[in-house]
Q: What sequence folds into this?
């Protein structure tokens, strides 16, 4: 049985939760999130807690939905109260990021700058030319935008140039050894 699914989700002060069937609406100081949860799970709200209960069947399908449903609800509550953030690093000679209004412009070694308009609900910042901050209340959307920005120029394995998550380890490879002066000379 899922250990995550058993845990109740606490509803903190300033957050309102509305459940109609399996359609959940969570409102908080940062915004509002809505989601349709799996019909198989029973969701109860009582005493400032949200509890997820699974059917009595112990089938793998229901066990997987049990923990997933609780985690989705927890991420909604955390998102409207605190929000989520992903940090990215830009590495490489001449590589940089800058904001032009709401649009992020990346200079990452192409013949042209790459412009990125964030979707609704996401804010982008470039506090330094080598740093990008992605913020929002929807954890899935924050992760998806960070992945899209990383995909613009993935870190390459020889010099490590590109856009990477903060603290991401990119294993480096050794390049070609090159031809020595004596081996390449003709006799």
A:
């Amino acid at each position: 049985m899922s250990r995550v699914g058993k845990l109740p989700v606490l509803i903190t002060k300033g957050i309102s939760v509305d459940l109609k069937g399996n359609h959940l609406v969570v409102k908080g100081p940062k915004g509002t999130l809505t989601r349709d949860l799996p019909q198989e799970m029973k969701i109860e709200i009582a005493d400032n807690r949200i509890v997820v209960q699974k059917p009595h069947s112990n089938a793998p399908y229901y066990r997987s939905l049990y923990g997933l449903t609780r985690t989705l609800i927890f991420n909604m509550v955390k998102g409207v109260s605190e929000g989520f953030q992903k940090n990215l690093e830009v590495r490489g000679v001449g590589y940089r990021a800058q904001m032009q209004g709401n649009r992020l412009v990346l200079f990452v070694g192409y013949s042209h700058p790459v412009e990125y308009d964030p979707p609704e609900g996401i804010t982008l910042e470039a506090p330094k030319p080598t740093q990008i901050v992605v913020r929002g209340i929807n954890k899935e959307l924050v992760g998806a935008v960070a992945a899209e920005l990383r995909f613009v120029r993935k870190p390459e394995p020889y010099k490590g140039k590109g856009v990477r998550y903060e603290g991401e380890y990119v294993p480096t490879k050794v390049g070609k050894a090159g031809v020595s002066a004596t081996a390449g000379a003709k006799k």
Summary: The domain at 3-81 is CATH 3.90.930.12 (Outer Surface Protein A; domain 3).
